[in-house]
From TrEMBL:
<dbReference type="InterPro" id="IPR035965">
    <property type="entry name" value="PAS-like_dom_sf"/>
</dbReference>
<dbReference type="InterPro" id="IPR003661">
    <property type="entry name" value="HisK_dim/P_dom"/>
</dbReference>
<keyword id="KW-1133">Transmembrane helix</keyword>
<keyword id="KW-0813">Transport</keyword>
<feature type="domain" description="PAS">
    <location>
        <begin position="94"/>
        <end position="149"/>
    </location>
</feature>
<dbReference type="InterPro" id="IPR050351">
    <property type="entry name" value="BphY/WalK/GraS-like"/>
</dbReference>
<keyword id="KW-0902">Two-component regulatory system</keyword>
<feature type="domain" description="Histidine kinase">
    <location>
        <begin position="210"/>
        <end position="426"/>
    </location>
</feature>
<dbReference type="InterPro" id="IPR021766">
    <property type="entry name" value="PhoR_N"/>
</dbReference>
<dbReference type="GO" id="GO:0005886">
    <property type="term" value="C:plasma membrane"/>
</dbReference>
<keyword id="KW-0418">Kinase</keyword>
<keyword id="KW-0547">Nucleotide-binding</keyword>
<dbReference type="InterPro" id="IPR003594">
    <property type="entry name" value="HATPase_dom"/>
</dbReference>
<keyword id="KW-1003">Cell membrane</keyword>
<dbReference type="GO" id="GO:0000155">
    <property type="term" value="F:phosphorelay sensor kinase activity"/>
</dbReference>
<keyword id="KW-0592">Phosphate transport</keyword>
<dbReference type="GO" id="GO:0006355">
    <property type="term" value="P:regulation of DNA-templated transcription"/>
</dbReference>
Amino acid sequence: MTTLLKQELLRLAYILLVFAIPGWFFHISLQLVFLGLLVYLGLHLRSLHKLHHWLKANPTEPPPELSGIWEDIADNIFRLQKEELKAKQNLLGIIARARTSVSALEEAVVLIDSQGNLEWWNSAAEKLLGFKSDIDIGKPIINLIRDPSFIRYFEHGPYTEGLRLPSWSQPNRYVQYEVTRFGQNDRLLIAYDITRLHQLEQIRKDFVANVSHELRTPLTVLSGYLETFASNEELPPKWARAFKQMEQQATRMSNLVNDLLMLSRLESDNIKQEHKAINMTHLLEQLRLDAQAYDPEKQHAILVNIDSPLRLLGTENDLRSAFLNLITNAIKYTPACGAITIRWSNDEKYGYFSVQDNGIGIEPQHIPRLTERFYRVDAARSSATGGTGLGLAIVKHVLLQHKGILNINSKPNIGSTFTCVFARESLVD
């Protein structure tokens, strides 16, 4: 039994004894004991009233004069209040320092509540995003940044990658947005000024496109003369072999230039080609004929499975180029007399174009990087096949234009399956 409880029981016993002794003399013990209990209750009610008045009127002041267990309760409440106040002040200090630190950042930092409304932002956000603290606080962010791409990104994600867009408040500037969820669906938005990076990227694209374009004409002339010399039967064997090798390398360089030009076109933000419904049965039959003519000496079995009657909305030339890149890769890396299956199918959510082979396969560590430009699993092997190292990069960019993704499943010495996945809204009857 605690000391305070013992003291309170002794106090109650003392009060009852004080009232019980006179009652014994006057033969009214029960009445006076009951009166003593009322006095004891009144003392507690008086202490409770003092405690309530203190908590309501002056909780930051020292507690009133109390006794017994009420004094201990008041002292504990006062101690807890001081500790809470100290913790609150420490927390406010941490928040103030954090806000000062965030305000010093060059990146725009914006806190957005679970309803999508602006809660707080640093000074960089006012400069970069044009927010005004006196009128924009509490407004939905999508009412300020109204770009449809940003609205889709903000409302639906995914947030694994950032979003690059022209600045809505400053012409000729570009901003990258990155969103992170926290708490109860609150969001943290970080925005970067990537104008310089965008300009450098545009310079790179323009340089590649211009150089590739300028190389096309001289390469065409060189290829023409080399083909003429290589086909001349009067040349000595040594010279004929040299011209033949030069012709092969000129052809390879020409293919590289054509692939670079196509990549530059696909990357251009100004190219918005109209999507039309593509007859996939007809397209796959054309691809089968092209595949059979690509390397007939290997005698591959080219199979076509059409498991869907739906057509695909897109740019036929670009999709044909992407699909043909996947098929020619399968031909290059599948030994003679292998099997290659081209398939078009769909389910309730997606449409699938896939190329499956039983070739040499790919090690797992290479798969995430296959769509990078000029990435080669084996440089010697790729050179022997005459590849440019841009085929899968072209496939990736074509699929981006059609809101599709590329899935790769491969096992060494068993084979590979490359699958282009298209959203259901890209399919029509």
